[in-house]
Structure formats: C-alpha cells, structure tokens
C-alpha cells in the first residue's frame, strides 16, 4: 500500500519540465495509461520500487512513437516494380511539385476561365486523353474498381452483363467481379467454360434484357493449354450489331507496347481504341505509372450518362490526383516516357542494373559475403501475369544469420528484399537510381 501512495499524481507529473514543448493533451493521455499500468504492476507484485525518471522516459518514448509517421519510405529491392504492398508506381517528382503548386493555391478545378462560370473538374484530362487515345470523352474516379462498379451500376442495374467464366476474376483484397456486379445491381450472365469461350457464346447469350458484353483482364493469372478467348475486336462488333454496350475492364492497362515482349497477347489502350469501343477502363497507378485513379474512356453519350450517376460524387478524384494524372498523360503525349519512373525502370538495361549492383557490392563486400547474379522478376500489380523480365540481383550472406533473420534485419532498416533459393536477394530492377545510391550507405551502417 505504501508503494501505491507513492504513485505520482497526474496533474503534478504532467507539469514536469521534461515535458516542456510537448502537447499537453497527448502527454496527459499517455501519462494516464502509463500510471495505470504502474498501478496494475504494483497490485500484481511485479515491481518493488517507483522510478519517476523512468516513467518520464517511458512517457516521452511513447509520445515520440505516437507522433512519428506510420507511412515511411522504403527501398524496394524485391524486383517487383508495381508492388501493391509498397505503393505501386512511383510518381515523378516534377509532377508532384506541379501538383503541390496547384494544391497550395486557388485553382480552376471547377471553373471555366474562358466563360467565367462553373466548369467541370474532369475537363482537365479530357483533351489529353482524346489526343492520346482518340476517345470521344473520359472521366476519372478514385481507382479502377470504382470505375467497374460505376459503369455496371450506370448501365446494367437490373439488366444483364455477359461475361466469360474464364474472366470472373478475384484480385487483391478479395475484389471479386461477380460480387461487384451483384453490389452494382447488374445481373451476371456467365458464358463459356473456364478454359474456352467462343464468339457464339456471346451471340447466343444476348436477349432483350442484355445491356452489356463485358471483357475482364485476367489479373494475376493466365489460362494456358487447351484454351481460347474472344478478342475484344469481335466483342465490339457483336455488341454494335446487337445494339448493346461493349466494355473492357483492362485492370492495369498500358498505353504503349512494353519491353521484353510483355505486351504479347495484351493489346495496348491505343490499339483497342482502333476498334471504336463503347467503354474502356484502366488504372492510373500501374502501367500508366501515375497516381491511383480509375480512368474511363469511350463514347461521349455513355460518359455523359455516367456523369449523371449520383454515385460519381462519392467516387470522384481531387485536384491533386487530377494535376498529377494530367502531367503523366502529357508525358505520354510528348513521348517523354523516361520521366515516368515505372516505364523508366522497365526499360533499364541489364547492363545498367549490373553496374549499379557492382557499385553496391564494392562498397560492402568487406563487411559481408555478396555476389552479383542474373535473375528474373515480374512487373507486379496484377499486370502481365506469369510473364518474367530479366534482372540483376545482389545475393547477401551475413555472419551466421539465416535468410529469414537477415531479411528481417534489412526490413528493420526499411530495405525490403526477397528470399529465393534460400538466399536473400536485392533485386535492382525495382531499385530506383536515387535509392541505389542510398543503398550502400544503409547497408554499411547495418553490417557495421
């Protein structure tokens, strides 16, 4: 009981000079929790003395922990460029700086400078998308999942959307096409089999209640062997002949052909637009290499109907997203693809990757066992499933640490590696040029 009486009073404890300059309300909250834990420890006979300096130290440590940002920068050494868990595509710094200027100033987000009246926020990217793809109109929402939901809800509520069984996908976060269709109010009409769908399946499925023929990109997997699917060009023709909408959920989507034959079997956005489709949707933050967004392009009359859907207000994007996206699209339009980090990393030569890996090896080889090796990796983010690209990695061994322990040690220092064939690898395909120069410094600190 004597020890309980020695517990510092909260009002006195929080006024200690050690807390000068700290938020009084947060210090009070943390202090109450720490002193409550102290009281429990005393009652459970876990401590015999009270050290007020230790309590102060614990309070400050918890304070610093709470105010430190949870979202931190890491070095992506996994080899996966579009890594869903690590923020997907990197944003060009110049694009971000332009967005900062927009965000910290009043701007014409919904104001027409020529007419001097209310404007439309989506107009800022329409002109560029028209020039890039030849579309009649476009709209942007917060991601491609939203785009899919909005399209289905606008045109298929209470009506049928025809989809191949081989395309009823589930992607990360348990996003399932059949469930999204149900939530949107669309009636799913499955056709074909898991491995084979023919054009006649689409044709036979069309009825008076059919609103749409829908094609879905098979993110994260591919069907090979005794299989077939219908080209979108044929779906577009069939839809137009029968007076229904054709729609391609491209998932990641890519504006141009990709290196290492990654585009094989997957037409680009520009190629698909040659078929004069009704609607396409794709992500802004994957192979386009920009900010998170869902972009819908297609016929003007259909885009206008989407704009009238009340759900759009819940799914719309803000000024920062529009500013960054517009700049990335302009980079595509001007063929300045090296300014898009995702495409720059995809196109970096193996020779350049070897040079970067050897520079790091030379800096750390006296501290640990390391070797530059040839390897392969994937783009990631559900793009180009099962297609590999060549890369270069630095394999690491340190003291007697097992691979899992070494990977954990690197992770504590915000280096995210991968383990392959019982070896810890730093894959330079996903290490940006800026991060490559930082890597040696961090590794020297870790291994010292």
UniProtKB/TrEMBL annotation:
It is found in: Cytoplasm. Its EC number is 2.9.1.1. Its main location: cytoplasm. NCBIfam families: selA. Converts seryl-tRNA(Sec) to selenocysteinyl-tRNA(Sec) required for selenoprotein biosynthesis. It is an enzyme of class 2 (transferase). The modification N6-(pyridoxal phosphate)lysine is found at residue 286. InterPro entries: PyrdxlP-dep_Trfase, PyrdxlP-dep_Trfase_major, SelA-like, SelA_trans. Keywords: Cytoplasm, Protein biosynthesis, Pyridoxal phosphate, Selenium, Transferase. Pathway: Aminoacyl-tRNA biosynthesis; selenocysteinyl-tRNA(Sec) biosynthesis; selenocysteinyl-tRNA(Sec) from L-seryl-tRNA(Sec) (bacterial route): step 1/1. GO terms for cellular component: cytoplasm. Its cofactor is pyridoxal 5'-phosphate. Transmembrane segments: none annotated. Belongs to the SelA family. It catalyses: L-seryl-tRNA(Sec) + selenophosphate + H(+) = L-selenocysteinyl-tRNA(Sec) + phosphate. It comes from Malaciobacter pacificus. One of its GO terms (molecular function) is L-seryl-tRNA(Sec) selenium transferase activity. The keyword Transferase applies. The keyword Cytoplasm applies. GO terms for biological process: conversion of seryl-tRNAsec to selenocys-tRNAsec; selenocysteine incorporation. This is L-seryl-tRNA(Sec) selenium transferase. The gene is selA.
